[in-house]
Design goal:
By secondary structure, the chain is an alpha/beta fold. Helices cover 52% and strands 18% of the residues. Strand 15, helix 14 and strand 16 form a beta-alpha-beta unit.
């Protein structure tokens, strides 16, 4: 925090700034006057004091008025100089304390007390060079919390700070004594760990312990549960071939390499660690190109809806279509949703992308027969938006599309982030006549209690259980159980991924379904 300087109000009430040069000149003049007063006191004070003492003892007339005034003036000037010198000493001490505080704030993180990025950068390169002289290597470990944004969104930044402080304590308790720890970003920590180049497994052990410690259930305050908050880590070593020397830029190179490896850990499922490899750079480059392409493609209308027909298996009648998003990219060709949907969610483009596709699909569906329905998939990210239901209803009104013909599909993963908010949102859509379908059922962790509490109109069995149904007895058992569950709850069942006559025949034997291919 920057402290206010001493100021004097002027006649308008505004503070009058004191320039450092003026204050310095004033101090020099004041001390000069005091020094001159001391010289004069030594030269004249002895005689004046001697006459004054004699006069007090009744001997002699005493000093004259000029001598007495000069003596008193000298004493006053000496006291003034001593007071000013004392004040200067206090000002110097305060300034030194302020500079030390400013330096500490510039190099350390105020929340955790660890080094920040600037502070770490000043000490990291020398440590790397010293380790090389000792025949050791430095493992730079970049740790990024998974799910931290959701904590901030749901509980506020105060709770997020508690989570960071708790995780920081856990990390500090796991690291070896010679390790160096810093917080370099919102939820990013960097650890520098010296190790024997022939025994990198020691670093793997530390990384595994850190991941387990962060993943452990804990409480932050009274309302925030850390369960579900995990950490992904990337590691780069200072003796790697990608680091040519241990010069001043070695830290930044290691930091970049660890960041690339950390991204790989997130991409491979999170809550794990990866050592940096030069081949990861190509994947990161492709990822950046995809991000740029998605941003451009949304504005250029490159994302288009495809439609998969849904059939009543008993009658063979067409009942509706599911909209499937495809990216018709001029660079990458026709790209499936498994590639671009996760990236669009991470970069905050999924809402605009989905609105564009739904708007186009509603226009297309208006030309279909009145009994045909339109199903659209909704991202878990969109369900966190409190205005999602209003946005969707607005699109229906603008397209003049009957809400009874629209069905939104949500995945089981949506139910675990904030089931109360999801229930409220779905109830709002249900009240407008929109149907709700639970997609990819069987691959998540839905409980019977959640199914009975949520306004679900339909269950869709994931295609992984359907595509090889006739050849896998376990899948057949699972489908039978889901079918019985649907009957018990009064929910129709849709089977995804029907691509053969054998699977179709088996499903007809198991019960009543709507079906669709892939």
């Amino acid at each position: 925090m920057v402290e206010a300087s001493e100021t004097t109000p002027d006649e308008f009430g505004a503070p009058e700034e004191v320039q450092p040069e003026t204050a310095h000149q004033r101090d020099v003049i004041s001390l000069g006057i005091a020094f001159a007063a001391i010289i004069l006191f030594i030269g004249t004070g002895g005689a004046a004091l001697s006459l004054a003492v004699s006069a007090m003892n009744g001997i002699g007339p005493g000093p004259d008025t000029i001598q007495l005034c000069a003596l008193l003036l000298n004493i006053a000037l000496i006291l003034f100089g001593w007071h000013r010198l004392r004040k200067l000493s206090c000002e110097m001490l305060d300034r030194q304390a302020g500079e030390a505080k400013a330096l500490h704030l510039a190099q350390y993180d105020s929340l955790t007390g660890f080094l920040n990025r600037r502070g770490l950068g000043e000490v990291a390169s020398p440590l790397i060079a010293q380790a090389a002289e000792r025949g050791e290597a430095i493992a730079l470990m970049m740790a990024d919390l998974d799910g931290f944004k959701q904590v901030n969104d749901l509980y506020g930044h105060g709770a997020g700070d508690q989570v960071l402080a708790d995780c920081a304590k856990r990390i500090a308790g796991i690291l070896p004594s010679r390790a160096l720890l810093a917080r370099v970003g919102g939820d990013e920590f960097v650890c520098l760990i010296p190790f024997d180049p022939a025994q990198p497994g020691r670093v793997d052990e530390v990384a595994a312990n850190l991941i387990n410690a962060i993943a452990a259930s804990a409480q932050a305050g009274e309302t925030v549960n850390l369960e579900g908050v995990t950490v992904s880590m990337g590691i780069a070593r200072s003796d790697g071939a990608y680091l040519e020397d241990c010069g001043p830029q070695s830290f930044e190179k290691l930091l970049h390499a660890a960041d690339v490896a950390m991204y790989q850990a997130k991409r491979q499922g999170r809550s794990r660690h990866f050592w940096y490899d030069t081949t990861m750079e190509n994947e990161l480059r492709i990822r950046r190109e995809l991000e740029a392409g998605i941003r451009r493609g949304v504005s250029m209308g490159e994302f288009v809806p495809y439609y998969e027909q849904q059939i009543d298996l008993a009658s063979g009648n067409l009942t509706g279509f599911e909209m499937l998003a495809r990216w018709n990219s001029p660079v990458f060709g026709l790209v499936g949703p498994q590639v671009f949907i996760p990236i669009a969610e991470e970069i905050g483009m999924i809402d605009q992308l989905s609105q564009n596709l739904i708007g186009q699909a509603l226009t297309d569906a208006k030309a279909w027969a009145a009994q045909l329905t339109l199903s659209v998939n909704i991202s878990p990210v969109q369900l966190r938006d409190p205005w999602f239901s209003q946005k969707l209803i607005k699109q229906l009104v603008e397209a003049n599309f009957p809400p009874q013909r629209l069905e939104i599909e949500i995945t089981e993963s949506c139910l675990h982030e904030n089931v109360g908010a999801v229930r409220t949102l779905l109830a709002s859509l249900k009240n407008q006549g929109i149907k709700i379908s639970l997609d990819d059922f069987g691959t998540g962790y839905s409980s019977l209690g959640q199914l009975s509490e949520l306004p679900i109109d339909c269950i869709k069995i994931d295609r992984m259980f359907i595509s090889n149904l006739s050849a896998n007895a376990d899948n057949e058992t699972i489908v039978e159980m889901i079918t019985s569950l649907g009957k018990g709850l009064g929910l129709p069942i849709v089977a995804e991924g029907i691509e053969s006559e054998d699977v179709l025949a088996k499903l007809k034997d198991l019960g009543e379904f709507r079906g669709q291919g892939y």
